[in-house]
Write a structure and sequence with these properties.
It comes from Patellaria atrata CBS 101060. This is Oleate-induced peroxisomal protein-like protein POX18. It holds the Pfam family SCP2. This protein is α+β, with helices and mostly antiparallel strands and 131 residues long. The protein has a single domain, classed as SCP2 sterol-binding domain (Nonspecific Lipid-transfer Protein, Chain A). It is 39% helix and 21% strand. The chain contains six helices and five strands, in the order H-H-E-E-E-E-H-H-E-H-H. It has a five-stranded mixed beta sheet with strand order 3-2-1-4-5. Strand 2 and strand 3 form a beta hairpin. Helix 1 packs across helix 6.
Length: 131
């Protein structure tokens, strides 16, 4: 199932992350151990529209639309523009710099947010993200 949304170009990254998590059982197990949480992303388009995705690294290692899987609650929510997320996932932007400049807002467990970096880098290094 594709998570692509044409009004949010960076949505292809969620397909890449999903593919990365399902590429091998050992990678999924490693991601679940490292992430150990539900990560929500709220992206904003230049028109002001918003869209949400989640990455469940607490129970299932799945990626989907919305803020959490059914019956779940995000441990941390990252709020940023679609273009900043594109830059982040492609390695052109640094999460800490985005946060310090106010372009990335973190709600919930800030320390969990730092655990997301290896997952994003894995998707990027596999060349699956066309951002």
């Amino acid at each position: 199932m594709s998570l692509k949304d044409d009004s949010f170009p960076s949505s292809t990254a969620f397909d890449a992350i999903s593919a990365s998590l399902s590429s091998s059982p050992s990678e999924k197990k490693s991601a679940l151990k490292t992430g150990n949480g539900i990560y929500a992303f709220t992206l904003k388009s230049p028109s002001g529209a918003t869209s949400s995705w989640y990455i469940d690294l607490k129970t299932s290692g799945t990626v989907g639309r919305g803020l959490a899987p059914e019956g779940g609650k995000p441990d941390v929510t990252l709020v940023l523009s679609d273009s900043d997320f594109s830059a982040l996932i492609s390695g052109k932007a640094n999460a800490q710099k985005l946060f310090m400049s106010g372009k990335l807002k973190v709600k919930g467990d800030v320390m969990k947010a730092t655990r997301m970096e290896p997952i994003l880098k894995r998707a990027q290094s596999q060349g699956q993200s066309k951002l």
